[in-house]
Design brief:
Length: 192
Amino acid sequence: MIMALLAGVLLAQSNTEFSFPMVRNAALPANVLPNAKAQVIIKSIGTVEIMTVAVSGLPANTDFDFFVIQVPTAPFGLSWYQGDVETDGQGNGVQVFIGRFSNETFIVAPGVADAPNSMPNGPFPDATKNPQTAPVQLYHLGMWFNDPKDAVKAGAPGTVTPFNGEHNAGVQVINTSNFPPPGFGPLFQVKS
């Protein structure tokens, strides 16, 4: 009953929809996952957006981590963890995220504050304070191997990056570098 009600509300509020591709990370070796890609659909429902991400050309039964990022390739800038995308036996996967994925997506820290240090011993320990920053818009998307071992099995480097919940992810697989210039990615096109 609640799901039917929610579906009705979402359909009734649907205002705009924007669809775009994500591309394979060009920094990967040329022979690694040559068909990796994603298609993204963002539907604005007024106060939030529904973002559906469909990936293909990836290793089967593998977990990936999805982020909203400042710039599509290294050094990535500020990054916001959205969640996981898991592939099926054919290397395809779909995930739905609900949040603010538009020209109003940003991070701000008006002042320095203490931060919890819940992972002090990993390869990328938590910061104990945030840096002060004016609003920084985040208009790009990227997806990383959850486990560096999975990256190596696919022929990619086994580099450890902080792009998962434990801060020990693998390398980036797909991104929105097909939207130049680097600062104005696809989320900028979604008007709130």
